[in-house]
User: Fold these one by one.
Assistant:
Number 1:
Amino acid sequence: MKNIFLVGMPSSGKSTLGKRLARQLGYRFVDTDKLIVQQEGGRSINDIFRTDGEAYFRAVEAQVLHTIQPDSRLVVATGGGMPCFHDNMAHIKTVGFSIFLDVSPEKLLERMQRHGQNDRPLFNQQDPTLLENLRQKYTDRRNFYLQADLTVSGETAVEELSKQIEPYI
Ligand SMILES: Nc1ncnc2c1ncn2[C@@H]1O[C@H](COP(=O)(O)OP(=O)(O)O)[C@@H](O)[C@H]1O
Ligand SMILES: O=C(O)C1=C[C@@H](OP(=O)(O)O)[C@@H](O)[C@H](O)C1
Ligand SMILES: [Mg+2]
């Protein structure tokens, strides 16, 4: 019955694994970035950052998080920064079971370069200092992520993960 929240760095696999986990458990899947885009009338994450700045984005992000009701059988893929702003991590822990997908900055870089998504305003693939940026953010954010109820490697297969969390949900 409990909601499941996936937290971790951008490209750690929250959206990808989240969808698979939801299918495996028969839960619904939501991505908080998608909820933000909806709430903002279809404006992209890039557009929100460019036009209104990060503080505005973080305010909408917290607002969207607070619309999630406990015990809704949801798998929630959060945005990479969500746990580090406002009271978000504490709130996540009151409305669901949280899982930190831990992936090294080097692996995150490899995934970002391989998949070529350009929808992350704080992590530009063209930036020659992207690895440094990822390392810095990973260091800054890790203590928030580690507040999750469970930490697993970002390589964990969905079958294994669903077995691990069964006793908690
Ligand atoms: N376990 C994995 N192994 C290899 N690549 C992965 C894995 N999980 C996700 N990816 C790839 O990494 C990219 C980012 O994944 P995504 O799920 O969007 O991450 P997040 O939502 O955490 O930012 C995607 O292109 C996805 O295919
Ligand atoms: O790390 C971050 O601060 C962000 C991560 C993004 O989500 P993903 O982790 O799904 O890329 C998105 O919320 C926004 O670009 C900010
Ligand atoms: Mg995502």
Number 2:
Amino acid sequence: MSRREMNFVEHSTGVNGLEKVILREVRGFSAEVYLYGGQVTSWKNELGEELLFVSSKANFMPPKAIRGGIPISFPQFSNHGFLEQHGFARNRLWVLDPNPPPFPTTSTNKAYIDLLLKHTEDDAKNWPHRCEFRLRITLGPGGDLMLTSRIRNTNTDGKSFTFTFAYHTYFAVTDISEVRVEGLETLDYLDNLKNRERFTEQGDAITFESEVDKVYLSTPTKIAIIDHERKRTFVVRKDGLPDAVVWNPWDKKAKTLSDFGDDEYKHMLCVEAACVEKPITLKPGEEWKGRQEISAVPSSYFSGQLDPRRVLLYSNP
Ligand SMILES: O=P(O)(O)OC[C@H]1O[C@@H](O)[C@H](O)[C@@H](O)[C@@H]1O
């Protein structure tokens, strides 16, 4: 199919009648986004292989968040505050943004949508602020998936607000015990399993043999997740998001999650571009931007560095 005939953006109905949007690119890549949560729930390569994990037990039913894909933690990461766990953005109905402010750079991407989350009077009871959260989700011609969040303080009472944030990305992996994460070695992290105590990561790349729930601090902008068995490497690139959360519930915790299969921990790993340690403060009228771009490449392309041809070809803004 030629690029001109292609339907890059299709509006459709998903599980339980929830509205979703399918993004497609010419070579066969696709992604699905639910308006509920403003949440990516599928990202497939040109062979139709699913790259994100969504639990077989996920509830696609408000008010619970969808377990898998890319939920958004806002305005509170996890339980680091007095709001509901991971904030409210992941269990609100977003709307299509009819008139998003332009991005400073022009791009020829066609498979994208703009979503908007407006803070309701109801939400304001728990979080007494006004804000506009604009989310652009783009599927690039090379299959890369880009999420850009623009959050603006629209308070009219002159008050600033403060938030923490994460793109809670669930990557699909073949076997967690054969997975390695590169880019976080020797960094400091807060261990959520040890009262957020601060430690320093030792040695080599990170591997997995038990529950992990860590917030790595001030990480490089590029992190690689290597799935040895599938010979696939996910590359996470991030901007405006200094931290990175790594989470896998392992067997015991998995059993306590009602929307997560007992053995599913073997096939997922969350690596989350985040801003946790130093919350962001916005004055009225100010805007913050945070961006995550993920790509999946054959592992042979990755040897400590991204393949330079891909970087040149697909580094879209
Ligand atoms: O079950 P939830 O609310 O989606 O959270 C899942 C996990 O999300 C991670 O980001 C947190 O670090 C964990 O502490 C938490 O358990």
